[in-house]
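Friendly challenge for the regulars: who can give me the structure tokens for this chain first? No prize, just bragging rights.
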Amino acid sequence: MRFKISTLYAFGLFFILSFFQFSAAQVILIPYRVGDRWGFADRHGKVLIQPKYDFVDRFYNDFARVEYNHKFGLIRKDGRMVLPPVYDNVYDVLEGRAAVELNNMWGFADVTGHLVVPPMYNEVRSYHEGLSAVRYGKLWGFINLKGDTVVPFTYSRVLSFNHGLAGVFKGGKGAFIDKNGNVITGFQYEGLPLRSEDTFADGLAAVELNGFWGFINTKGEIAIPPIFYEVGTFSEGLCSFKIGYKWG
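First reply, four minutes later:
Bragging rights claimed.
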């Protein structure tokens, strides 16, 4: 009987602690201004993070960008500073990394505030599937979460990785590469999707060949021949298309 009571007590305690942890995680913090200072309050107006910043953004992935003395940093929901406001700009945290700008160059910091990739790139994009598209000079390549170059800087334009593949351009033609930098399709396309999130939606990516649009699969094979003037993006098995002056 003592074992059963102890077990029930432990279970009840675990449930209560879990409930309060869940409730704390669900607190919605809203930007709150007093005079010219910004902080955060809950939806009832209770101040949870004192207004001391020049400006704040809304929380995203449990972090918020804050501005102080014309510099940017990141804070957690409990108000703790993750990145001190010493950067010229800071992006949202994705895959445990936040892009940071210093003296017109970009790098990445992790959620402990450690500068993983020193600001050395002219342009960066948020990490997707463990890789970030970065520009050094005029050319683009990809780095991993440690900052190691995994795809050399050889491309004039790139899309972020989606479903293991990324669209890239070289010499005015587009292709898709894998995470090892292997070219899957050959550089033959005049056009690729404008947004990386549109590549391989429902397993298909739009490509333009000889002035017409079709779709390839993740193996680089033609799935729908390029016969359309324009196409949309697949969603739930359907996609809009244009032939002549008509859409279907």
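The domain at 122-248 is CATH 2.40.128 (Lipocalin). The longest helix spans residues 2-25. Your move, everyone else.
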